[in-house]
Amino acid sequence: MFKQIASKVHEVRPLIHCITNYVSANDCANVLLACGASPIMADDVHEVEEITASAQALVLNLGTPNESKFISMLKAGQKANNLGIPVIFDPVGIGASQFRKDLAKTLLKEVSFSVIRGNASEITTLATWQNHSSCIDTNALKRSSYDMLIELAKNLSEKLGSIIVISGEEDIISSPHITYRVFHGHPAMSTITGTGCMLTSLIGAYCGANPTQLLQATLAATLAMGLSGEQAYSKLCQIQGGTGSMHILLIDAISLLDFSKVEGGLNYELYEKLS
Amino acid sequence: MFKQIASKVHEVRPLIHCITNYVSANDCANVLLACGASPIMADDVHEVEEITASAQALVLNLGTPNESKFISMLKAGQKANNLGIPVIFDPVGIGASQFRKDLAKTLLKEVSFSVIRGNASEITTLATWQNHSSCIDTNALKRSSYDMLIELAKNLSEKLGSIIVISGEEDIISSPHITYRVFHGHPAMSTITGTGCMLTSLIGAYCGANPTQLLQATLAATLAMGLSGEQAYSKLCQIQGGTGSMHILLIDAISLLDFSKVEGGLNYELYEKLS
Amino acid sequence: MFKQIASKVHEVRPLIHCITNYVSANDCANVLLACGASPIMADDVHEVEEITASAQALVLNLGTPNESKFISMLKAGQKANNLGIPVIFDPVGIGASQFRKDLAKTLLKEVSFSVIRGNASEITTLATWQNHSSCIDTNALKRSSYDMLIELAKNLSEKLGSIIVISGEEDIISSPHITYRVFHGHPAMSTITGTGCMLTSLIGAYCGANPTQLLQATLAATLAMGLSGEQAYSKLCQIQGGTGSMHILLIDAISLLDFSKVEGGLNYELYEKLS
């Protein structure tokens, strides 16, 4: 199934419209090309609706925000909603300022998102509107906290009608009724900037090419990123490289990923909460 | 001859002023340094004219456009025209929105360009003002279409007085009277973002260092990019890398290129249309 | 001592707020992660003060300037001053336009900087307000000029109350009373864009984690960059790579740097001017 979803990206070559930050824009474009999609970055209000209308998915990323980009996100998001195009939201560093929280609040009110992806602190901030860390990339969490996070993701998913992805040491993917846990990835991924943004773009590509199975597409993209991180780290050890090489090897792995050749199988599970 | 043109870049170390998009700005700066030029990225209206005045070439890139950057392009372009500094235009994704088409139309009216480079769909849009693809990086074209493209490039070159470069599987470089076809490059180049922008920057560097022979400089830059793509791909196969490595190897190859050591000779031709 | 200062970055994991250019933003974020710090790039006036307030250092970079980013720099800088957070300034390309000189003049008047880092021409422009090169990356200077530069750095440091770093073939680090010369680094570092910006970010990280010993932290960061450049170049020769690989290997080296394992010792000196 995952192989089919991933192959669909190469077949359909979906155009993914990204309104995003300038820090990871190049990486996101390269990740989209690596998985078979076609990126277009555009954030001016005069063109975003037209570009969204010709895209297969829209990715809104809250990094390096400003008001004019926000207006563009709003317009593009509403256009996508009207046309039934999947919209993916990445609340980058939402806990870092009241400004980001205000923008995110308005976006959630005015735009319906197919998928929202963040790390534990970002999604927790989105669910509670209280800060849980000023740090963007807090990933390590205690075991017990994961059960709470899963509940939070489920509840948020129900409330917003969006698939919620919390990425970290363990990834959580939740629709209102089904929750998956993914156990792939490697801590070295958090030593480079933009891995979260890259995963969000990947989800955009997978959803854009598979619009009728968004949950499976989101799960597949999350698995793809985790597997790519592992493969990148494994090569990194061979060449004894540092974080610069990890960056390149991660994009390499995304472009070389073949679900039918994953050794050791996929490590994820359907989560069933006793109730 | 090509060796001389390329060496001139290292000798002169031309300052290339780029008003460009944030997706490939880092790559363009690195490509300029790799070929021996010196990049300066600047897009604020308060400084672009002064910076253009001290540069040896100006590169205008339509990616991630907005109105204030457009005003800067206009002012910098006119300043360059007044001072006789070559101006290179890259109509990135011009077919993607009416906004980009409008900006490009005004630029073409107000600024005289030495060279315009795009892919087949971009240049066709520029010539006909009709969309030919919503996709920025459509490269594959049927054999017969190339003859039509060559005619289109020639006619556009005559109309605008600019050298027209259509890059793709086969590259077309046309002045009003002379047309070249270049058969270098590799499809793997289109698996990374910004290769078009990088070629445009390279043309800027070659033209900036060789302002009296713009057609030969443009041809040399196009050959340099194609050869670098081939050399990068050849190394990529050795290391069994993915698109992340292709990205790095391409910049490597540009920095290591030596026209006097190209094995197998240069594969390009002067195109003579029977008439 | 340097080992301790560098380790402190990994321990404290300081949040470094960068208001910076879009050309090297990705590299700066990756360098910050590579040395153990946590980057946040944010330049909108609605959030910069709040973000600076939660950061351990603020880095202001004059590349690709515009007025709204300038206002943000001013507000963030003053907030940092009020809270005693170190502020680092990189006057990128200050000689390139009157606009950049005006912005820098106002910043120097309104914000107190802990450290200012530039190349010889940038710092000379800052000291004399006359242009000394239109080229951003002029690095090669004659031996005799270094003595003049050291005097200039010392005087500027006294005048502004900031640590002055002039990076180049030889690096100069000067407080009003103490001046160091650092003899590490490699010319290949100037073949990639943003190495200056990366060093400035590194200084931000080291100062952010060691706020009570800013001069030693700045010296350590400069040594770290120089050593990393040498190690990167040494690996580059092994793989016979070009400037693309140099870029990656430099970030690798920063992430792998261990002051306790530097072969051949550190090559720097306390400069004593006879007087």
Automatic annotation (TrEMBL), chains A, B, C:
Any Gene Ontology biological process: thiamine biosynthetic process
One Pfam family cited in the UniProt record for this chain: HK
Cross-referenced InterPro entries: Hyethyz_kinase, Ribokinase-like
Enzyme Commission number(s) of this protein: 2.7.1.50
Catalytic reactions of this protein: 5-(2-hydroxyethyl)-4-methylthiazole + ATP = 4-methyl-5-(2-phosphooxyethyl)-thiazole + ADP + H(+)
Pathway: Cofactor biosynthesis; thiamine diphosphate biosynthesis; 4-methyl-5-(2-phosphoethyl)-thiazole from 5-(2-hydroxyethyl)-4-methylthiazole: step 1/1
Binding site for ATP: 117, 167
Coiled coil: none
Task of the protein: Catalyzes the phosphorylation of the hydroxyl group of 4-methyl-5-beta-hydroxyethylthiazole (THZ).
Family note: Belongs to the Thz kinase family.
Protein name: Hydroxyethylthiazole kinase
Organism: Zhenhengia yiwuensis
Gene it is expressed from: thiM
